[in-house]
């Protein structure tokens, strides 16, 4: 009887071992899949970090370029304003001096008068912007909205 019980027990133990071995194999396969997923995720993270670093470099260059262009623009606008003032003074001098109007024909005087009026109106107007730059979308892309804060560059 004990022998039969051992045989019956041995058969069920053997089935239990097989079931446990199948569970271990399923767990091992799941671990392998998770390891592969982890490897792929690390590779993707490395690619994304490299792309982010490249974009940060481009952003830094773009910020520097915008800063340089804004400085150039301010210098050119100041020079334009200076030249307009000189022109206005010359026009006023020509219009005021009797010898200036005598030397000029009536047509030249009318052109100078119109030009003087136009320039004076332009000088009294707010700072004029270059016509090559479309600034009609200032609410969307105003240069005042651009952050030139370099503290983020250190991160």
Query: What is the overall pLDDT average?
Result: 76
SS-derived structural category: mainly alpha
How many β-strand stretches? 0
Looking at the structure, what is the overall shape?
rod-shaped
How many helices does DSSP assign? 4
Helix content: over 70%
* Gap between N and C termini: 78 Å
Structure description:
The protein is mainly alpha-helical. The protein has a domain at 7-95. The protein is 80% helix and 0% strand. The protein has four helices and no strands. The chain has helices spanning 2-96, 98-103, 106-124, 138-141. It is rod-shaped. The two termini are 78 Å apart.
State the main characteristics.
155 residues; rod-shaped
Task: Briefly characterize the structure.
The protein has 155 residues and is mainly α. Helices cover 80% and strands 0% of the residues.
Question: Layout of SSEs?
Answer:
Blueprint lengths: L1 H95 L1 H6 L2 H19 L13 H4 L14
